[in-house]
Design goal:
Blueprint (H helix, E strand, L loop, with lengths): L2 H9 L5 H24 L3 H39 L19 H7 L5 H12 L1 H41 L1 H26 L23 H19 L3 H19 L1 H17 L7 H4 L2 H8 L11 H10 L4 H8 L19 H20 L3 H43 L5 H9 L1
Helix pairs in contact: 1-16, 2-3, 2-16, 3-6, 4-5, 6-8, 8-9, 9-16, 10-16, 15-16
Length: 430
């Protein structure tokens, strides 16, 4: 695999790949190490238990994301196919706006893609059944992982810790006797000053029109999973201090995972353009495409005439072999059949295509103005690669180092202790 393809994957902040790189490669390792170090200041035994809990929590969650969610989706697709439907039909097509939709695409592709049109007709004739199956798939790929990650896994983790504390109560009795009196006094003093009340009330989620949740992206699904995971972990936390810390940590994690990388990307692109005059809006796979660079140099880049959905779709369908259409396909913004017919079962996000078109147009103008398209493209590729790596490192530092440090400070201010609040209070009961 080309380096540009790898950089492209981890640089796409609308996909799950940057999250996986940060979670599995950097964040989890750092969190475990910092958790152990923080707790070791007061108790070596609790430090080991806290580190073990963090390993199970972080890598268990990653395993569910990497393996569990795709597997549940795979099984759901099999059920949908067994009911006679094509599972690959985009649910966005259920709402026909006259430009894209079941009826529109059936009429539009009846002659050019008859087999795929039959798949659409089956859904059109049984829309309510298909919708229920898709809603079932959505619920299965969210509720099951949330239950496992937010409720079952923490309970198992906590129960194992409780068992280890019971088995080693004689060994840690001396530590408890020295700490408990001091902590009790400190907590009484700080209770009225620094305590942050956390109220976790059971509430029923009202799903009005579940079909509005259909067709969301993998990233949006992960955001929903993290929201459910946060609620589950707060609910299963062992005491108020742990609930407060979990809420604080998860809020920071969600922001740094989903919002911060996009802001960092925009900032880096702006700085690169302002300071060095280099346009880094395009993906590294495009910047590393020799055909693309040659087409710009020879002024052969053909783009849709405007950004309206009608013109964009018309361009893709009438010029499927154009360089822009192939780039859009490579970026997974559109899908074509082997005969280069746009797949009518797939919804096309025209807004994303417009962003791509404008980025291509802007890069073409800047590179031609530079005097040497090839040299400009090489600089842009290097700068974009640097920006992607810098984004991963910055966001990883914020997640793996800055957030835990702020979390530990929050803990110290609230509990006057360096120890994990859940384990510490369980320990003191022994």
């Amino acid at each position: 695999m080309k380096v540009s393809n790898i950089i492209s994957a981890i640089g796409n902040n609308s996909s799950i790949y940057p999250l996986l790189v940060r979670d599995c490669g950097i964040e989890n390792v750092a969190k475990v190490a910092m958790t152990y170090k923080q707790n070791k200041k007061e108790s070596d035994f609790i430090a080991k238990q806290a580190a073990r809990e963090r390993i199970v929590e972080e890598y268990g969650t990653s395993a569910v994301w990497l393996g569990g969610v795709p597997f549940i989706g795979f099984l759901a697709d099999k059920v949908i196919e067994k009911k006679g439907f094509c599972s690959q039909i985009s649910t966005e097509l259920l709402k026909d706006n006259g430009i894209q939709g079941l009826e529109t695409n059936i009429a539009r592709f009846k002659n050019s893609a008859p087999d795929m049109v039959r798949d659409l007709e089956k859904v059109l004739d049984n829309k309510a059944v298909f919708k229920k199956l898709q809603v079932g798939k959505f619920l299965a790929t969210t509720i099951i992982p949330i239950t496992v990650m937010g409720f079952i896994l923490p309970r198992l983790n906590f129960n194992y810790t409780k068992k280890k504390l019971e088995e080693n109560k004689d060994k840690i009795a001396e530590v408890i006797s020295k700490k408990s009196e001091m902590l009790e006094q400190q907590n009484k003093i700080s209770q009225n000053k620094t305590a942050i009340p956390v109220s976790v009330k059971s509430s029923k989620i009202s799903f009005k029109g579940l079909d509005s949740l259909l067709g969301i992206s993998n990233l949006q699904k992960m955001m929903i999973l993290d929201g459910g995971l946060t609620a589950g972990r707060i609910r299963t936390a062992r005491n108020k201090d742990e609930k407060a810390e979990v809420a604080f940590k998860m809020a920071g994690m969600c922001y740094l995972n989903y919002r911060a990388p996009k802001l960092i990307e925009r900032g880096l692109n702006k700085v690169t353009k302002t300071l060095f005059g280099i346009n880094t809006e395009l993906d590294t796979k495009i910047l590393d495409n020799k055909e693309f660079i040659s087409a710009i140099k020879d002024k052969l880049i053909e783009l849709p005439s405007d950004n309206t959905p009608e013109k964009m779709l018309e361009f893709l369908e009438t010029k499927p072999n154009s360089l822009f259409s192939r780039i859009a396909e490579n970026q997974k913004l559109v899908q074509f059949t082997k005969d280069r017919v746009r797949d009518p079962r797939k919804y096309v996000d025209v807004k994303k295509l417009n962003v791509l078109k404008d980025a291509v147009s802007g890069f073409a103008q800047d590179s031609i103005s530079s005097g040497s398209v090839e040299k400009y493209a090489k600089k842009a590729l290097k700068a974009k690669t640097f920006n992607v790596v810098a984004n991963v490192l910055i966001s990883s530092f914020l997640l793996a180092v800055a957030l835990p440090k702020v979390q530990f400070l929050f803990r110290k201010l609230r509990t006057k202790s360096n120890l994990e609040p859940g384990i510490r209070l369980e320990n003191e009961k022994k």
